[in-house]
Amino acid sequence: MRILLVEGEVHTGQYLRKGLMENGFAVDVMRFDSGGFDSGGFHPAHRPEYDLLVCDVPRGAVPIPEARWSNQHAPVLFLAEGSSVPPDGLGRTGENYLLKPFAFSDFLARVHGLLRWGADRVQMTLSVGGLELDLMRHRAFRDNKRLDLTPKEFLLLSLLMRKTGQVLSRSYIADQVWEINFESNTNFVDVQIRRLRSKMDDPFASKLIQTVRGMGYVLEER
Questions:
Q1: What is the pTM of this model?
Q2: Residue spans in the chain of domains classed CATH 3.40.50.2300
Q3: What element of type H or E holds 132?
Q4: If you compute the radius of gyration of the chain from its CA atoms, what whole number of angstroms results?
Q5: What is the rounded distance in angstroms from the CA atom of residue 108 to the CA atom of residue 159?
Q6: Which residues make up the CATH 1.10.10.10 domain(s) of the chain?
Q7: 197 versus 89: which is more confidently predicted?
Q8: Which CATH number applies to 2-117: 3.40.50.150, 3.30.390.30, 3.40.50.2300, 3.20.20.220?
């Protein structure tokens, strides 16, 4: 599952990002400012693929209203000093606050709770041509047969399935799944795709992961 972390304090952001990734989440990071935009004008409401938005509010800043951040799917969690929380802010539906300082275990429990709370609004399963991903339980099936995937293989497959029919470049895949800069003279992504294919394509008659020569990969039923 993919989380957008809005970083208010660099050290806090790095700590949370590392912990979330160690627990199997994909994490994108942007910087907090008073308008809710980063320097490139990026706004999370335009990115519906996120399952949760986490905003680390710097000391003395006013949390951005939930409506400014929320898209039609993702719940929002604000991390804030007690003095930064509006008197009517706590306990409101769709707008949650975790007060600093907090233990990571408490933060992780709140993350899981919000994901469960939003499960009825979020597409929790992906399905293409007999292939099904259960995003909440991290399980994958092909023709009702359980696939034994590593966490990164599951993340790679979920990326391909979320972008069904779209050709994804090797550099995009490397950035989204491994958060690394892809070197064009290496075959790192090709090797990972080959390993995934060996589990979810090779044992079956129809092949879902297609190679687009000179461009990248696409998952689609042909």
A1: 0.53
A2: 2-117
A3: strand 131-134
A4: 19
A5: 23
A6: 125-219
A7: 197
A8: 3.40.50.2300
Write out the DSSP string of 144-180. Answer: TEEE---HHHHHHHHHHHHTTT--B-HHHHIIIII--
Query: DSSP letter at 183?
Result: P
- The pLDDT tens digits for 92-143 are 434 577 888 888 888 988 888 887 765 555 556 888 989 998 876 788 999 9
Whether 75 and 114 have beta carbons less than 8 Å apart is answered as yes
CATH of 125-219, one of 3.40.50.880, 1.10.10.10, 3.40.50.1820, 3.40.50.720: 1.10.10.10
Give CA–CA dist 77/75, Å, rounded.
7
CA pseudo-torsion sign 16, 51, 127, 162: negative
